[in-house]
Specification:
Helix content: 40-55%
Distance between the termini: 17 Å
Order of helices and strands: HHEEEHEHEHHHHHHEHHH
Strand content: 5-15%
Largest sheet: 6 strands, mixed
Number of strands: 6
Radius of gyration: 21 Å
Oligomer: single chain
Structural class: alpha/beta
Shape: globular
Number of helices: 13
Length: about 300
Amino acid sequence: MAIARSTLGAWVGSCGVQLQPLVDALKADILLHSVIHADETPVQMLKPGNGKTHRAYLWAYAAGAFEDTRAVVYDFCESRSGEDAKVFLGDWRGSLVCDDFSGYKASFGAAITEVGCMAHARRKFFDLHASNKSQIAHSALEQIGRIYDIEREIKELPPDERKRIRQEQSKPLLDALHQWMVLSRQKVTDGTATAKALDYSLRRWGALTRFLSDGQLPVDNNHIENQIRPVAIGRNNWLFAGSLRAGKRGAAVMSLIQSAKLNGHDPFAYLKDVLTRLPMQRASQIHELLPHRWQPQSQAL
């Protein structure tokens, strides 16, 4: 079947129902991993009947930055309710890398461990330093920067080796940083920007330093933020989703496009090939068409 690039968007939109089993299989693969990243971003959705829009949310979930599977799934929801995250994760057990949004906290417990984002903690001090050249913020940035220097050196190492170096080099630095933060907090007034930046890290210290004891855990949530960025840029062009169903279909298409990019594929070539083969693909073999397993039809034959 020949498909022109100019008509692919319309064809994909009409095949939303066909694509859903593929996205469901992609989600199932992500949930097989013990480390998952999560993030969310607002998207305007047209309310039926009155022609006005309201704030909906596009949630994003990806296998951990150090996992073998390069995949992301977007979940379009009408709200930012933590229940949406609970429904998506279901009975999954593992380590969830996320920010301090309260919606994720309902999922934490015996089954799911919270892993904090050091980049979020650093951002608090970066903004503080940018606004008033705070010496406390400057010192915090320098100390956190040393942690990231180590992470850049060990990112390609096996998990056990990564954990060993973190314990030997990063843990003493973080212990010193924590002690410095506690002492600095005692010297600043409650409610100030400096106090809030320190409180963010001190309140989440356990989650922020969880990566020290597991070489498979990342130091931050930047991996999923990079998958959210195309959505944040794109919504300036498409402005809003026309309905909940349209938002969910769009999320399905974006899941496949972004996952194809993560695996080094041309999204157009991938979708053209997959949408041609999907109607004849056996349900038991649908996993072969996932972006991280896909081979063009000419190679698969």
